[in-house]
Design a protein that fits this description.
The structure is a single chain. By secondary structure, this protein is an all-alpha fold. Helix 1 packs antiparallel against helix 4, helix 2 packs across helix 4 and helix 4 packs antiparallel against helix 5. The longest helix has 38 residues. It starts with a helix and ends with a helix.
Length: 166
């Protein structure tokens, strides 16, 4: 089988669908997952952290659920925009302004999810390390998408200049 760009786009759309299904599962099972996670998490940094903030398990679960659901809103928006971007590319509309706008929204969704996760980690010291890692990953993804958006923007500018010279 010859692997074409059309097949690659279809695979990407399937992956977006899989991520949507996983996100839905996380949204549905967030409470039991958060409860289990919070029971198994340990303090970091030694006894100094425990003296700074005393957080009960239900408060920890509440903070984690808030971070998950706020991040989930950003994730749903990003997945929808990714699907629209893939549909545009499948139609042959690659270097168009609409795609730049879609990429811009996706990047801001990544930064929004990073902020929600970072705030959640700061609010619950027990969770700061795992949420800090997630926040860093989301921010890094936002940076990558932002750079791709800038490349698209430059390509659109170059394409329009090229179209004017012909």
């Amino acid at each position: 089988m010859h692997w074409s760009s059309k097949n690659s786009i279809i695979l990407s759309q399937v992956c977006v669908g899989i991520f949507a299904a996983l996100l839905l599962a996380v949204d549905i099972f967030a409470y039991p997952l958060a409860s289990q996670f919070c029971q198994n998490v340990h303090y970091i940094g030694g006894s100094g952290w425990e003296q700074l903030w005393t957080v009960t398990d239900w408060q920890l679960v509440a903070v984690l659920l808030t971070a998950v659901y706020v991040g989930s809103v950003f994730a749903w928006i990003a997945l929808y925009k990714l699907f629209r971007l893939l549909r545009q590319i499948k139609q042959g509309r690659v270097f168009v302004e609409e795609n730049v706008k879609l990429l811009r929204v996706i990047s801001w969704c990544c930064f929004g999810a990073a902020a929600a996760t970072l705030v959640g980690g700061a609010a619950a010291v027990k969770l700061i390390l795992p949420l800090l890692v997630l926040a860093a990953a989301a921010a890094f993804m936002g940076l990558i998408v932002r750079i791709v958006k800038n490349v698209f923007q430059q390509a659109i500018t170059m394409k329009s200049e090229l179209d004017l010279t012909i």
